[in-house]
Amino acid sequence: MLSGRHIVLGVSGGVAAYKAAYLARRLVDAGAQVRTVMTDSATRFLGVQTLAAITGSTPVVGLFAATDVSPHTTLARWADVVVVAPATAATLSRIATGLSEDALTATALAAWGKPVVLAPAMHTEMWEHPATQRTMTTLRSDGYLVVGPATGALAGGDEGIGRMVEPEEIVAAVEAALAPGDLGGWQVVVSAGGTREAIDPVRYLGNRSSGRMGNAVAEAAAQRGAEVTLVTTAGAVEQRRVTVVVVDTAEEMAAAVWKAAAEADVAVLAAAVADFRPADPAAGKLRRADGPPHIVLEPTPDILAGVAKMSPRPFLVGFAAETGSLDEAVVKARRKGVDLLVANDVTRAGSGFGTDTNEVALITPDGVVEPWPLLTKRQVADRLWDRVAAMRGAAP
Ligand code: CTP
Questions:
Q1: Binding site membership of 304 for ligand 1 (Cβ less than 6 Å)
Q2: How large a percentage of the chain has pLDDT more than 90?
Q3: What angle do CA 184, 185, 191 make, to 5 degrees?
Q4: 139, 118 in Cβ contact below 8 A?
Q5: Which SS3 state, helix, strand or coil, does residue 72 take?
Q6: If DSSP codes are grouped into helix, strand and coil, which group holds residue 12?
Q7: Which atom number of ligand 1 is nearest to the Cα of residue 274?
Q8: What sign does the dihedral 38-41-43-45 (CA atoms) show?
Q9: Helix (H, G, I), strand (E, B), or coil: what is residue 62?
């Protein structure tokens, strides 16, 4: 699995750096090509010559010492995966904030879009500090893969959580990072956000959807290997394998979704689409002095219905935001021609618009309702993809 793969091993300055030599050895033994990058303080714990001898390539230390004018981008482009072991609190914090003033953190940043595995190592107090925990939350949400830390003996005879995991476990994490995701090869289209329908050039009819649920669905799919077209009114996802198409109106969303759906294996329509729009939006700003306007509405295209009647059509997941009972959603699951419907009661605490969490029920067209617990939107997205993968089989 690692044979011939290009692995950049970054070593930062903690006592666990000595284990980076074992890690390099194991990666080389597995057939990988390994290049290394060290922080200055790492060189106090582990000899540059040691890593050079094991990998056959001189470690990069510092951004200006090497003959290469841009050693960090050279390394990042060459890499299939970057692994930072040990990753100290300071190095993790610099990666999370983008403070890339040394060769290791610059390499980690330049590798954006590629898998980066981080193996934290530090004392328990430092690991538990809110600053480090904030850092880890940021890193995880940015898509970094974190392995450990473990509980055990620490530097200076201390015991506790913070110990770098053993090289074997890091090798396994690198293998997992390189494994094709279970959605590899899938073409997916996701709609997200709330559409805006012009009343005049200033005002619109809209809704409270933030786009977070659809964005999470798109991100999760891409991280699991799918090629994703995200048609959204919110436009905040930067993720490898996600092509973002920003739209405003139901009409624009319909055109973009239908175009992508014609090629897609799966369509997940999580957007809150206006059902009606002003039939004749004013060309100029409506004035207060003219009194309350009479706005005549007309129906918008039903995007989901358009996908449902495609032939062949993608596996189709609809969303239904309800207020109160989910009885109507059960009817919708049958009526709309979907394979699955994700329904939620947006009036419940922690559910619906603008929150990071959601309590949904999965409904099948035959009326089976499966309530899920309160989860983060990302967890809902992953569970949904687990289900879709199980229903349509792993390969398209
Ligand atoms: N949807 C769509 N195009 C529309 C309206 C809705 O594609 N013009 C999609 C949504 O993205 C969602 C699903 O249809 O996946 C259900 O949306 P919902 O508004 O609950 O459906 P409606 O039939 O409009 O139901 P309601 O009567 O509750 O408004």
A1: yes
A2: 82
A3: 90
A4: yes
A5: helix
A6: coil
A7: 8
A8: negative
A9: coil
**Nearest-10 crossing angle of helices 212-223, 377-392:** 50
Residue 391 pLDDT: 94
β-partners of residue 37 are 10, 60
Q: What pTM was estimated for this model as a whole?
A: 0.71
Give φ, ψ of 163 to 5 degrees: -75, 135
Beta bridge partners of 195: none
Of the candidates 101, 179, 169, 162, the one whose C-alpha atom is nearest the C-alpha of residue 128 is 162
The HSE-up count of residue 113 (CA atoms within 13 Å, CB side) is: 7
Task: Report how far residue 265's alpha carbon sits from residue 263's, in angstroms, rounded to the nearest whole number.
Answer: 7
Residue 371: cis peptide before it, omega within 30 degrees of 0: no
How far is residue 196's CA from residue 248's CA, in Å, rounded to a whole number? Answer: 6
Distance CA 396, CA 388 (A): 11
Q: Say how many Å lie between the CA of residue 305 and the centre of ligand 1.
A: 9
Amino acid letter, residue 163: R
**Residue labelled with tokens 């039939």:** 279
Is there an atom of ligand 1 within 6 Å of 271 CB?
A: yes
- Dihedral angle sign, alpha carbons of residues 88, 10, 174, 16: negative
Give the amino acid at 367: G
Q: Ligand 1 pocket, 190 CB below 6 A?
A: no
Residue 174 pLDDT greater than 90, yes or no: yes
The helix/strand/coil state of 158 is coil
The amino acid that residue 207 corresponds to is N
Per-residue pLDDT for 395 more than 80? Answer: no
pLDDT number for residue 394: 53
Report the C-alpha gap between 35 and 6 in whole angstroms. Answer: 8
What does the alpha-carbon distance between residue 275 and residue 302 come to, in Å, rounded to a whole number?
8
Confidence of residue 393 (pLDDT cuts 50, 70, 90): confident
Residue numbers annotated as active site: 207
The residue assigned the tokens 């595995």 is 117
Euclidean distance between the first and final Cα of the chain, in Å?
23
* Angstrom distance (rounded) from CA 346 to CA 19: 50
Q: Is 121 in the pocket of ligand 1 (CB under 6 A)?
A: no
Domains of the chain: 6-178 (3.40.50.1950), 187-394 (3.40.50.10300)
Helices (H), 2-129: 17-29, 42-45, 48-55, 71-78, 89-97, 103-110, 124-128
Contact, 47 vs 65, CB < 8 A? no
